[in-house]
Write a structure and sequence with these properties.
Blueprint lengths: L1 H7 L8 E3 L3 H10 L6 E3 L2 H7 L4 E4 L6 H10 L3 E5 L6 H13 L4 E4 L6 H11 L8 E7 L11 H4 L2 H4 L2 H10 L7 E7 L15 E8 L3 E8 L8 E7 L4 E3 L4 E3 L5 E3 L10 H13 L10 H18 E2 L4 E2 L3 E3 L12
Parallel strand pairs: 1-2, 3-4, 4-5, 6-9
Antiparallel strand pairs: 6-10, 7-8, 7-16, 8-9, 10-11, 11-12, 12-13, 14-15
Helix pairs in contact: 4-5, 5-11, 9-11
């Protein structure tokens, strides 16, 4: 309900309806948006047919994104969908095709694209003053294992896909939305779950990507660690300079540091992305969508590529291997 809570606070927005498969969740959502008096539904298509909506926010399990996004776009309604785009390459492709055909907004919930701190730092990185980017490093440490549908790969795509896709998005943005050429990875499961699903998500992984220009990106993701380890790292290296994206710090060759943007947290940008979505609806979708089908495609496929590099889902085995971008088999690659 966090996104719903943020949306209710946006000036000029009225929540007309809420929908969930479970009636108790519908009731909770109605309480969250009580000042708007939204009607409640357990049937998504019934809601689309009966309500006169301008836009829809999709915040389902990852594997159900396409099921909701495509009918919304086909109905000519503006759509904001939580990240990542979906849990498989095939479903990502169906969303991309629908978004390319649609004459309405499709925005993906990668909120750092709307975080002013990250925007400022990207302008600095892409402006040419710092020089060539040479290396990227990142990690994200969580203190406890996430349960529920997130640990079910068939619903979430795995933790690299469901959670770490945010960092895939940031680093593909650093690389000006270029796709990585190849990657290799390792992962495993340490934390034991009661009644785990058949395909249980990894709880730690380490991936290495190679981008054009031999820019290497190393990344580690864990969902268990002591409190002292909790946090995220997003570092960009040049020749004798570096940028710490989370802290907004530039480290210069003379050994000094310069605050080039505000320090950020995980959630900054969520209010801004929803506000931008609402403003763009009012303007008829004429504004540039910063996190769109094309940028979201690269970020989501990058996370799926990393998962493919450490796990054979058909055999349900963790097997490290080198995966090239072409191995994804995406049918929506644009040719120049």
């Amino acid at each position: 309900t966090r996104l719903l809570k943020y949306t209710t606070a946006i000036e000029g927005i009225r929540i007309g309806a809420v929908c969930d498969l479970l009636s108790d969740r519908v009731a909770r959502a109605q309480v969250t948006a009580k000042d708007h008096k939204p009607r409640g539904y357990t049937d998504f298509r019934e809601m689309l047919e009966k309500e006169k909506l301008d836009g829809v926010i999709v915040a389902t399990e990852v594997a159900n994104h396409a099921k909701c996004v495509i009918p919304v776009l086909e109905a000519g309604l503006h759509c904001f969908s939580e990240k990542p785009m979906d849990s498989t390459v095939e479903k990502v492709d169906t969303i991309v095709n629908a978004a390319r055909k649609a004459k309405c907004i499709y925005q993906v919930g990668f909120q750092r694209r709307y975080n002013e701190s990250f925007i400022k730092q990207m302008e600095k990185l892409h402006g040419g003053q710092l020089g060539k980017i040479a290396f990227l490093a990142g990690d994200w440490q969580f203190p406890s294992a996430v349960g529920g549908w997130v640990i079910n790969v068939e619903m979430s795509g795995g933790k690299l896909v469901e959670q770490a896709c945010h960092h895939m998005d940031v680093m593909s943005w650093v690389m000006q939305n270029q796709r990585p050429l190849e990657c290799v990875g390792m992962a495993a499961i340490t934390v034991k779950h009661q009644n785990p699903p058949r395909l249980t998500a990894e709880d730690h992984s380490s991936i290495i990507f190679r981008f054009p220009g031999d820019v290497v990106f190393t990344y580690t993701h864990t969902s268990y660690c002591p409190e002292q380890f909790v946090g995220e790292k997003l570092w960009v290296y040049g020749e004798k300079w570096g940028v710490n994206l989370s802290k907004g710090l530039l480290y210069t060759p003379d050994g000094k540091s310069e605050q080039i943007a505000d320090e950020s947290d995980y959630y900054r940008g969520e209010v801004e992305e929803l506000t931008a979505f609402a403003d763009n609806i009012r303007k008829g979708g004429r504004e540039k969508v910063l996190s769109n089908a094309e940028t979201g495609r690269v970020s989501t496929l990058m996370a799926l590529m990393g998962t493919m590099a450490f796990r054979d889902l058909a055999k349900n085995r963790f097997e490290p291997r080198i995966v090239k971008w072409e191995d994804l088999g995406s049918t929506t690659e644009k040719t120049s």
